[in-house]
Design a protein that fits this description.
15% strand; 2 domains; globular
Length: 303
């Protein structure tokens, strides 16, 4: 334990890792993670290591924001927005930590996830269909994706219902998307409680399913599937079990996700009575964020 404390103390004293030290820090985090899993280190040891980080684990850094969860839950709209905007601290004593954070595969995958959604929306919009193009966005967070979608082209004919349980997220998103509210509605409710008479061509959930155990995952899929149109498609994101940033997220940020393999996602879909031909697994370029596609109609939305 002494060598772990000495390592993190030295890194904190110099304001975080330089780019030449990224691999060493990453390897150290993975070693700590393995020692925690193997019982060599305990929760008290982890707390001691975190205490040594001081302001580097305060809300003034991205990793500290993740760890402290100032909005009361992990992966809140504000940290997701900071990732989207590639935020880094202006404080030279803290900036190195943020630079390291933003260069990890998981934040890169989150940014790629937004592009994945935008590509899906553009593809859907290009389809010459007479039925409505209404989209349900579940756990919509900061709505930066919708802002980008409408900013690129302001004569969109697509309509969005956004389910979000955090009123601060809704307030932020409404202000961000204030010029596009004729096409966007925000609904303050829990995804599990959401009901509507509307039907949707696409239901999208970027990150909510990362936090659901298998039972809740299946329950929410079954809750959302009846809201699809006859040719509708449901797409949910889930971090892959091969996420190389998992140790950093858990050891430093206490950011716990339900990582899954493609096969596990397929099994969960089959538990909802979907056939192989109606299931597809997508990936963003890093391969860190997986996407479970489930279709009710003949074809998936082209990608």
């Amino acid at each position: 334990m002494k060598h772990h404390i000495a390592f993190i103390k030295e890194l904190v004293a110099k304001g975080g890792p330089d780019s030449s030290e990224y691999q060493e820090f990453t390897d150290w985090v993975k070693t700590v993670s393995n020692e925690l899993k193997n019982g060599i280190l305990g929760k008290e040891d982890l707390q001691l290591l975190r205490n040594e980080m001081g302001e580097a684990l305060s809300i003034l850094t991205l990793q500290g924001f993740v760890f402290n969860k100032p909005h009361g839950y992990p992966g809140d709209y504000e940290i997701i927005e900071k990732i989207y905007l590639e935020h880094t601290s202006n404080d030279p004593e803290l900036r190195k930590w943020d630079l390291y954070f933003q260069l990890q595969k998981a934040p890169i995958a989150v940014k790629n996830r937004k592009k994945y959604f935008l590509d899906l929306l553009n593809s859907l919009e290009s389809l010459n269909q007479t039925n409505s193009k209404r989209v349900l966005n579940v756990a919509s967070g900061p709505a930066r994706d919708l802002f980008d979608f409408f900013s690129l082209k302001n004569d969109r004919t697509m309509f969005f219902d956004n389910v979000e349980f955090d009123p601060l997220a809704i307030s932020y998103a409404k202000n961000l998307c204030k010029d596009f509210l004729k096409n966007i509605e925000f609904l303050h409710t829990n995804a599990f409680d959401f009901t509507t008479d509307k039907r949707y061509r696409l239901i999208w959930s970027a990150g909510l399913f990362d936090y659901l155990n298998d039972k809740k995952f299946i329950f929410l899929l079954n809750h959302l599937i009846p809201l699809l149109e006859n040719d509708g498609e449901l797409v949910v994101g889930n971090f892959s079990s091969s996420n190389p940033t998992q140790a950093y997220m858990e050891v430093i940020g206490d950011w716990q996700l339900k990582h899954r393999t493609p096969d596990q996602l397929v099994s969960l879909a089959k538990a909802c009575k979907f056939k192989d031909t109606d299931i597809r697994i997508g990936r963003e370029p890093e391969g860190v964020n997986l996407f479970l596609h489930l279709k009710c109609g003949k074809d998936f939305i082209p990608q």
